[in-house]
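Run Tagaturonate reductase through structure prediction, thanks.
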Amino acid sequence: MNEKIIQFGTGNFLRGFADQFIDELNKKDLFDGSIVIVSPTDSKNTDKINAQHGKYHLILRGIDGGKEVYETKRIDSVSRAVNPYRDFSGFLALAKDPDLRYIISNTTESGIAFDDSCAFSDSPASSFPGKLTQFLFERYKNHLNGFIILACELIDDNGKKLEEYVLRYADKWRLGKDFSEWILRENRFCNTLVDRIVTGYPKGETESIFRELGCEDALLDTAEPYHLWVIEGDFENELPFKAAGLNVIWSKDVAPYKKMKVRVLNGAHTSLVFPSLLCGVETVGESLKDGQLRDFLNLCLDQCILPSLGNSKECIHFAGSVLERFANPFIKHMWRSISLNSVSKFRARVLPSITDYLKLNGSLPLPLVFSLACLILYYKNEDVCDDPAFVDYIRKNDLSDILENKKLWGRNLGFLFETVFMCLNDILDLGIRGAIKKVLR
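Sure, done. The structure for Tagaturonate reductase is below.
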């Protein structure tokens, strides 16, 4: 099997996501190619990968279609790994392979960045876009075709940002106008949206798992069954993910899917975190087992968030999958961890649903406003991890000033004062459980 894909990123996520998908294509005779992994940092993971000849096991476990799933897959799609810090010439040699056609990357949110200190003579350039520019220039010099590049980093416009920085390096390093034109003409930098919780190496469980496998596996990976990959473009004829039954969507624009994910998945988290913490519930799974909190979450989704998105079938289906994912017994998501930086999260994930609901209905979505009241109450009385200036302001000021502070919320929320004030009074008079019960009426 020839190497056809270069992957920048040795971590758990891509091995529990894209590498599984390529493995599925190969095993269903829909593709015939392997992945060579390139380490974007000087990582020892390349040694682990090569020691196992790229082979590893992925355990998918969670809730799917209302049923508990526990499935072990042997992943054979990875051929080897290259560390450009130890073998820069070997890294550049990959560019000379005409069979290579695709590049997949996940170098973390900070990976797609422009580092002005990078030089073309570095072996390699420290930044990922710098390394990619060096690699593409080697490809260009050998008069070979470009690549389909699928950036999976969790930033907006990930593919286009990567293209922008590659072109900046080409200009900074004076690699020539012809090279820049080749980048634009011969390569497709695709924005993508990824969604899967990959929980990685299951520390504390390996003894029993290795016994079941009949071998040890230093690359063992775990993930939830759910997956979504939205890719701007349409290369289904080359990478037939849909034909393989995978939840991969080729689209002209990932933005609507990003909006759905942020408002439904992330918005549900942010709406439920402080009602749960005020109730003394510590994990997402425990909240889903708590009838009252589950009803509150359903109310947030069904009556507030989904209507603000038009109640499309796609969004309704996605919301159903979110409830299953939250209830996953194999993932212990702590609300305290989810509560980090909740002011900016509320601003990005929940506030747009409130304002859209208000435009559509002429009234406020009470459950979402109640979640804001819970946030403010929690910030006033408990230790939280957020911008110290935000925390200090909320603790020292009265409700009207808090809501009208544009630095906190990005706009004046004075129009929410009466409803937030009512919710806070209900919590103080009735207790958190009694106040939630009133919202649910």
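The mean pLDDT is 97.
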